[in-house]
Structures are given as C-alpha cells and as structure tokens.
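in:
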C-alpha cells in the first residue's frame, strides 16, 4: 500500500497563507484581500506573502484557482443516475457552492476576475470546469443541430443568472430554491430533442 504524499514545508506555508486569504475574502470581500491583510490574518510578515504570491494579483489568482477547484468538486456528481438527473444534481451543487461561498463565487465570475485574462492559469481552470458542464449537457439527447458547447453555455447562462439574482436579493418570487428548479427544468426542456 502506498503511503500518502506529504506536503513539503513550503507547500504547507502556501496553503496556510491561502487559508488566511480565504478567511479575509469570505469575511470582507475581494477588495479587502491585500498582502498586508493576509499577512496579519496568518500572523506572518508581509514579505512571507510576497515571497509566495509576488503581489495582490498573484494572491487573488491563487484564490480563484482554489475557488474553481471547490466549484469543480461541488458539481462532480459521479456516474450514477441518468443524464437529466446528473445534470440537475450538478446544477444544484453549483447553486450550493455560490450560496455557501458568495465572495469566492464573485471572485471568479464578477467583472475584474482573474479568470478574465485569457492567458491566466485561472482561465484554463475555468475552462476545465466548464468542460464538466459540456459533458453533462452533451449526455442529453439534444435538439438536432444543437452543439453541446453552445447548449452548455445556455445552461450556464441560465443557472448563473438565477444564482446571481438570488445572491443580489432581487428575485420576484418568494421561493428562490423553487425558482431555481423551475429555471433548470425549463433549460433542460429547451435543450432536449422533442420526442415524437
């Protein structure tokens, strides 16, 4: 039996600094994530943060990568169930992640996100997470001529819009969870081939 790989001291320090940065992000929002604030939260000198992440942008990029990893875990539904059931469960996982971690969700999807830079590793990770949705949507019996990537983008547009409105508190219906389910059902119906 293989023994689990141990983290090096350097990896542990980087993880501890990211934990501190996540605490600041969750508590105070992305604007509050500064090298000094993270150093204070972690109980280290600011140079320790600079040595690992270069600057605030590097810190935010590392946080965004971690947030995408968490989102990927939230939408990972495994192989059990039919295509529609799996897609619905993944969408529910997406909503749970957003509602449980609104600052992390905003970091990766709001204007100015590290994911907006096409050359960023954050963007690459975001595309990998999107590929999970493409695979889930592609497993449906799609309407003729509907590309799975276009279908996944439409699905994401709908669920992201629903979650963003819920986070902003501007829904026009009293039950956000029920409204989300109706949105997902309508999107799935719109993507699937009509049965004769």
């Amino acid at each position: 039996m293989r023994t689990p790989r141990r983290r090096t001291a350097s990896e542990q320090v980087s993880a501890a600094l990211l934990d501190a940065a996540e605490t600041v992000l969750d508590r105070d929002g992305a604007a509050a994530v500064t090298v000094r604030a993270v150093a204070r939260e972690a109980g280290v000198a600011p140079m320790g943060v600079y040595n690992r992440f270069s600057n605030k942008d590097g810190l935010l990029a590392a946080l965004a990568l971690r947030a995408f990893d968490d989102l990927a875990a939230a939408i990972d539904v495994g192989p059990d169930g039919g295509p529609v059931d799996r897609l619905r469960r993944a969408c529910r996982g997406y909503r749970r992640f957003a509602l449980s971690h609104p600052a992390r969700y905003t970091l990766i999807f709001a204007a100015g996100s590290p994911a907006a830079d096409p050359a960023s590793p954050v963007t690459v990770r975001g595309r990998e997470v999107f590929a999970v949705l493409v695979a889930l949507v592609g497993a449906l019996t799609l309407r003729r001529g509907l590309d799975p990537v276009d279908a996944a983008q439409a699905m994401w547009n709908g669920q992201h819009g629903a979650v963003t409105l819920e986070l902003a508190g501007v829904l026009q219906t009293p039950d956000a969870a029920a409204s989300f389910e109706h949105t997902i059902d309508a999107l799935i119906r719109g993507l699937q081939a009509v049965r004769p």
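note: Residues 13 and 52 are 9 Å apart (CA to CA).
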